[in-house]
Task: structure prediction
Amino acid sequence: MKTQKPISQRALDFDLNDEEIQQIKSNDVLAKEIYDAYKADDLSKELFLPGYAKLVSTKQHDLTKALDTIQSKARTATSNHKNRRGIVFKLLSVAATIVVLVGLIIQPWQESTVELTSEEISIELKSLAMLSFESTGFLDNDRGESTTDSEFLANYSFIKDDNCENLTINDRYKEQKLLAELYCSYQHNDMNSVKLIANEIINNQYPNYGKVEGLLNKILKHDKSDH
Amino acid sequence: MNREDWQHIVNEARNGNELLFNNAVTSNYGKHFYNVIVDITRDDQLTKEIYIIAMTKFWERFILWGEPLPESNINGYIYTISKNAFFEKNRKANTEKHGFIKSSGNIEILEKYHSHVHQSYSVDIEEIGKDRDESLHQLHLAIQSLDIKCKKIIELNILQNITLAKLKDELGITGTYNAIVQKKKRCLNHLRRLLQKEFQRKSSTIEGITS
Result:
């Protein structure tokens, strides 16, 4: 059963049924009411939770990027599959042994298409650190006040501006500290610190530890190939 | 994916691990949602955009704000959110095209509001009166209608950066720290309702003048 929320609130929640959507489309007064509700909602959230709109748009951007990456990988895989099949048919007429050789040649190329460059890893690490700062303190009970902490905000600015030298994050903000230091260590090519910090995040299962683990694997691959 | 799976994903995300949620968003798109959403949009690119808007709303409601998940058929619910997202995208485009009211953006309004705050952290009403931005007046009126504790939270927590933990006792809020966090949430909701009334009052005044 639908809740008793007013229609404007359900419009904000994206919870209207087909009939109500049609009703709004054909009723200017109702459409204006919905418009006012949106405006009031945006303004109130931005006043009470500065940066709220940016937080939501960052999440939307991250999800878009994640979906794009998956689709691009799927396209690459399909295209590789087609290419391989074509090559195999051609080469079968020449010699089966060459097929094996071709397979060996294209394998590293296939892998490289789904790998991240150092720059992309760096961007991913920075996004993680920034999102960690941005999402802290909005609604979280234990850390609810932290966005108003000037030291916290200063450190957030340092990360935004790539100013790793001035970074001094209190242990109270452990997750932000680790993610920021992970990013800065990677920027400075300090691989020992990168491994130590990443492992601390993973072992303690801090937020986004799965993502950090994925990135660490990619970093380690890069590190090996560099030596 | 059933409700239990979604509940697990949402719980993990509320605890800071959003990887499962992100993975669910990407893996469910082709499997469950592309075909049904493209029926509404009739466009590949738009389908993806609508799905992402819908899943961001899902994240905002059930992870960020911690609302309880619907009791059943989460996939059906995501389809409903997607239909609403499509409607909202079109509505927004039409609103921008025809423009109900021309006014400043939210950030600009809030910047103006902050600039009218005195050193004593009270708002300079005379200065606001001189400003020609109607939304700024409406924001001021709505804030004035809030209860004293909400006004204090705006003044001390938002404008003066005093932590909620320190404010709790000063505002006479008993209970755990969560009590003041919840109070702040209620203040936000109250302000939203007051603002909406202000905007609607203004619209009916304009209609009254023009009719």
Summary: Chain B has a mean pLDDT of 85. Chain B has ten helices and no strands. Chain B touches chain A through 71 residues (CB under 8 Å). Residues 177-210 of chain B form the longest helix (34 residues).
